[in-house]
Amino acid sequence: MHDPFMLYKLIVLYMLKRVDFPLTKAQISDFILGKEYTNFLTLQQVIGELTETGLITAQVIRNRTHLSITKEGLETLKFFENQIGDSIKADINAFFMENEIDMRNEVSILSDYYKSTSGEYEAHLTAKEKGITLVDITISVPSEETASSICDNWQRKNQDIYQYLIAQLF
After folding, report:
1. What's the CA gap between 56 and 20, in Å, rounded?
2. Alpha-carbon distances, residue 147 vs 119, 133, 157, 162 (angstroms)
């Protein structure tokens, strides 16, 4: 391919098409920078342009940017996917074979907090599996520190909490 910048865009689109869940900027960066396809600043520019042109969407959740391919991104990739070399596709496929379960878990357990209109903080906790919400909890607490702690603990203890809730409610 003559334009490396276009190739980087196609790689990001291809990666997002390969999964049925959002990928974080960090996950995409791990692959692209790990393979030394390009540098950090160029990759940020690529992601920025893909977002600006509506080929991907970006959603920031607790300091992590989750990226998803749009319908327009899928259409664009359909026309240009053949410009991604087979060796790059093989690298991407191998990366997902090795990391997909961990990557899926990372974006399936979400937590964030915000200050409510009452002045309290609300911790919003979600667990999803294959796009289906399993648990969606909002807890009001008096301090930002407590809300942050709840979010951190949700990341580590969500399975135990989910199992406890199921056991108590059924």
Report:
1. 14
2. 13, 21, 15, 19
- DSSP per-residue letters across 111-139: EEEEE-TTS-EEEEEEEEETTEEEEEEEE
Nearest Cα residue to 38 out of 9, 10, 8: 8
Torsion-angle region of 35 (φ positive above 0: left; ψ -120 to 50: alpha; else: beta): alpha
pLDDT band at 104 (very low <50, low <70, confident <90, very high): confident
Token pair of 93 as six digits:
């496929």
The tokens describing 21, both together, are 């869940």
Q: What is the pLDDT of residue 103?
A: 79
- Residue 60: CB atoms within 10 A of its CB come to 10
Residue 132: is its pLDDT beyond 90?
no
Q: Where would I find the beta strands (DSSP E) of 15-131?
A: 23-24, 56-61, 64-69, 109-115, 121-129
